[in-house]
């Protein structure tokens, strides 16, 4: 399972780079450039937005606004009110960004599946059922650090990283439980 995740981790950036190289050589897509004219209301005509895929030199009201909503003599006054902008975007950059985003999302999903399915099975197989983390009910109310010495002794005997993380989690849980008790006790005393 870990080998597959490692292979996907190496393969995803390579796919993104291949897509970038393949799409970068292609000519600009007709959807990557456009002229956008925003025309406000004029006399009895409502305001409207016009888009057209044309070159930058032709980006003006006369070339973009079709059909012209006003008759011949009012065309110049109508066009003076319109604001036209030439817009250009890179669809290649957008596609590569989406590929990278989906690759990272896929890796996180695979990791989540690993954590929920494979890790508990491996943990049981490696450490047996007797050494699972104790639940909150097993920890004594009067002495929250009573089991800390046992956990410390077990973590010293097993020198791998997973056991050190388990010990840190256990210690953190005990500290949080002690903090909760002191906060709730103070709350009761203050009321």
TrEMBL record:
For this UniProt entry, which residues form the secretion signal?
1-26
What parts of the sequence cross the membrane? 98-117
**Keywords in alphabetical order:** Membrane, Signal, Transmembrane, Transmembrane helix
Report the subcellular localization: Membrane
Question: GO cellular component terms?
Answer: lysosomal membrane
| InterPro entries per UniProt | TMEM9/TMEM9B
Where the protein is mainly located, per its record?
membrane
GO biological process terms, alphabetically, are:
positive regulation of canonical NF-kappaB signal transduction
Q: Which Pfam families match?
A: Tmemb_9
Q: Per the similarity annotation, which family is this?
A: Belongs to the TMEM9 family.
What's the name of the protein?
TMM9B protein
* Phylogenetic lineage: Eukaryota, Metazoa, Chordata, Craniata, Vertebrata
Write the gene name. Answer: Tmem9b
